[in-house]
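Note to self: keep these together.
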Amino acid sequence: MGARLRELPHIVGGELRLAPQDAAARDYVMSIGRITGLELAVIYDAETGAEIERVTAGQTDRVQIGPRSLEAARLRRQLVLHHNHPSGGSLSALDIQCLGLTRSIFAHGHDGSCYFASRAGGAGDLWLRIGASLKGRLGEAIADGSILRHEASILYAHLVNCTLARVGAIRYLAILGPGAELAFADNRKFLLRLIRETSGYHARAA
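Structure:
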């Protein structure tokens, strides 16, 4: 049997601890992804442990859910998706949209980062709306020298997902890569205030 529904990932000692089937899926997408430079995905059924499929779109910045997984989602199976991120960035808007079909999603960065999200209140189009708000605030911060452009760029998706989690739309865990971790540490006070203020605005607007 594979990972059960109760076996959620958790952070211990700065590492994301995974159930055995999650670790095996991570190892597959990382080993092939590092060789090819492409994004790949493994999708399995969290209730039975059965692997549904392994897929790739043959691209470096996106992956697709294949027909077997779409059929399993139609039958309301509890799917878990693992994929790699060559860039090391956090979960994208398209990744979070996958939570409409999957129970949870992981992204494993080639820089040692790891990101996890699962359904909570439901994200809908909130990722894009929060993203637009953060882009505006980050643009102002870049202009006045509060944060460097490359720091804002590598942290953008992570900040969106932190804000989504704060408003209760998703459950989110992250182990940042070295570059993103340093950028966050250097701007910690500003970024925490940004997340708090942006989440407050979108919580009131919901």
